[in-house]
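User: For documentation purposes, I need each entry recorded in a consistent format: the amino acid sequence on its own, followed directly by the corresponding structure tokens. There are two entries in this batch. Please keep commentary to a minimum and don't merge the entries.

Assistant: Recorded as requested. Entry 1:
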Amino acid sequence: MTLTQLEYLLAVDTYRHFATAAEHCFVTQPTLSMQLQKLEDELGVQLFDRSRVPVRPTELGKDVIEQARVTVSEFKKIQEIVQAQRTGITGELRIGVIPTLAPYLIPLFITDFIQKYPKVHVVVQELVTDSIIEKLRLEMLDVGLLVTPLQEKTIVEIPLFYEAFVGYLHPKHPLFSEQEITPGSIDNEDLWLMNEGHCFRSQVLQICNRTKPPKNVHLDYESGSLETLKRIVETQSGMTLLPELSVMDLPEDKKLLVRPFTDPAPLREVSLVVHKSFLKKRMIEALRETILAHIPTDLKTRNPVRVVKIK
């Protein structure tokens, strides 16, 4: 059994296609297939069900692959320690960020991070939570920025700050005259939501004590963009809930549409997340420190008494 064979094994698990895996490993498909066959012969087990398209690991293969990821990761940590000593913080950092966070958080810190660490190439992808978790598992991302807590035993969560939910109301909405709102005061029938797949949608429904989305009489519109939800409220009617960072830089006339919740306001926990066997520790710690340096103080020091869970 060799490290190269384990890397080929992980590549096939990641891409579920021998030719694609070989391409990413910079070898020919026959070479990759031969090495995997040698590994299976040595172990005396079949690791992949080749009769299926795309290929899938066997039940025993899943266990072997999980351990192979740990083994390869630990080997790479040795290389990482030596490289960091020689060159400092350098390399590629692949970040996955949920769409309800990316447009408001990334601009706060990314310029400073790039200037501080010019030898780091940053790649940012906007993805929903499930995709970030899967890509972390497959080592296609190094770190995620998303909302926690999660129910994922393979994920390590590093909480960064607590962001309040706020209401965003049309000027003719009945609650517009109020200085603050409560979950019980929200009429669910005029509430605009994110579409399925976004954890923010689940949290909003929980705040409003609903299991199903509202049904508008004239228009049903579920969006994947908070900015679109703002425009729907402004031009149509009703209200939506938004995360705090998304309203901080609004023009003054739009800030008039924002209403905070009464204390204790519902919060979402924003965390930096990594796979349990994550690499690039110094780089990720540098990312954490840079983010915290640019977050408003009250978000970092807030008492998380009412964190809305993700279901």
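Entry 2:
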Amino acid sequence: MTPDELKLLIRTVPDFPNAGIQFRDITTLIGNGRGLAATVQMLAEAAQAAGAAGIAGMEARGFIFGAAVAVQLELPFIPIRKPGKLPIATIGVDYALEYGSDRLEIDPDAIEEGDNVVIVDDLIATGGTAEAAAKLLRMAGANVEQSLFVIDLPDLGGARLLEDNGVSVFSIMQFEGE
């Protein structure tokens, strides 16, 4: 399948979660076996071209795509978790949200110093979560230079934010607007 064909599998839900937002719902993409396989293949090819030694994905939808890419490439998967989800001592980073803050955590032993880790997620909007993930992975000793997304919402500036922080961005498709 082509990126344009995959884009047709994304459901747009108007006014969710707030009025004026066009929510890009990937559940219709992951519910299509052929579309999911094509998406994972495209992400895996990009991760392989980036020389990935590990794949990191943020909870929750980054687990879907990141784990599938890691399996396809036979690489380790590093889950980036919400606070309090790991039963061991973790390292974490707090980051700002539009209204408040959040935190991401990882197992510090999941990464070998200097590992080339590629971030995989379903969508990049403002980039705050992905930027925090890159910072956290770097704190753990990873080399983070590439991120991969199914969808980019370029008007929200997330790709620019990551690139300003030394992380290249690849996306399969883009949707203009919010």
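Summary note for entry 2:
The chain has one domain: 3-174.
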